Amino acid sequence: xxxxxxxxxxxxxxxPNRLWLSPMCQYSASxxxxxxxxxxxxxxxxxxxxxxxxxxxxxxLPEGRISPEDVGIWNGTQVDAWxxxxxxxxxxxxxxxxxxxxxxxxxxxxxxxxGSGSVPVxxxxxxxxxxxxxxxxxxxxxxELDLAGIDAVVEAFAAGAQRxxxxxxxxxxxxxxxxxxxxxxxxxxxxxxxxxxxxSLENRARLLLRVVEGVRAVIPDGMPMLVRYSATDWTDxxxxxxxxxxxxxxxxxxxxxxxxxxxxxxxxADIPVAPGYQVPFxxxxxxxxxxxxxxxLITEAQQADAIVAEGRADVVMVARQGLRDPYWPRRAAFxxxxxxxxxxxxxxxxxxx
Length: 353
Ligand SMILES: Cc1cc2nc3c(=O)[nH]c(=O)nc-3n(C[C@H](O)[C@H](O)[C@H](O)COP(=O)(O)O)c2cc1C
Known about the structure:
Elements: E1 8-10, E2 13-15, E3 19-21, H1 36-47, E4 53-59, H2 76-91, E5 96-101, E6 129-130, E7 143-144, H3 147-167, E8 171-176, H4 181-186, H5 201-204, H6 206-216, E9 225-230, H7 241-254, E10 258-262, H8 279-286, E11 292-295, H9 301-309, E12 315-318, H10 320-324, H11 328-335
Parallel strand pairs: 3-12, 4-5, 5-8, 6-7, 8-9, 9-10, 10-11, 11-12
Antiparallel strand pairs: 1-2
Helix pairs in contact: 1-2, 2-3, 3-6, 7-8
The structure holds flavin mononucleotide.
């Protein structure tokens, strides 16, 4: 039986455990450059023992940021700042994946504590793009991407991945969930196109698959590529888990290795939030043979271990529990009676038991 603190190998990367930090925007950057806050935040979680840290949504283009304060990876200044942080994470025994992102029609919004809705152009925002000129309710109307614009998005993801290699990241995650650009293309609720990028599931998946291929072409063969999906839109007429399972299979054939399974975000919806509520979706996508993670209200060590031990997911990701406690994997290992590993920082060794 596999457990939470057993290693997992994806391509040639062995990740020491199956309790990973889910990506979390910090809305704390200027000009997309990660800073001291991101450094302390991410390195603390490396010391805390997360097997893999996934960076927050990292814009591949300035207009792909969710908020003006998001981090990015579209220029050399950002790469230099990431390199310092990645190297510090490695220095403290951690591994880190970059989450490459484009927010599409959900870009240029106020980050939680600064306001709500779209940031106007004259207040530091920008005009957004999407598969179709249909706004997310309450946000500014986006401009429909033309074919040249779609090509530019593919190139930006590949260039972002290339820069991530330069910065030393261990893996890449493509953000195709939560109603951001790649999910907007996948979902019939936001993609009303009539060209080869709209209509059938195959057409709606075309952009994601081009991105997967483009990224795979610039990262080493041995490096894993994760894709974060929303496995349901929680809305009639939207994506359902079987659709997303099919897309995940195509993405695997195109070079992706792992499905990070979340849900929702493309339209406002009533989501029956409860402990572990997204685990059945990970289970469904994983049934087709793709390694998967489950995320969402997983807050107890036994709960996390059971998800892996029962084979419902290969990995558990936690977000908010990792905000409350950067050392939660250390605490969870203790609660599960996992022998204290030799990986504890010596400075903290007396806190083991
Ligand atoms: C502050 C915060 C920021 C987040 N930012 C991102 C993000 O950048 N990318 C992403 O895919 N999900 C993001 N999420 C979603 C989380 O990764 C996670 O899927 C969600 O919070 C459910 O997990 P939890 O119940 O363990 O918090 C964010 C969540 C929080 C709380």
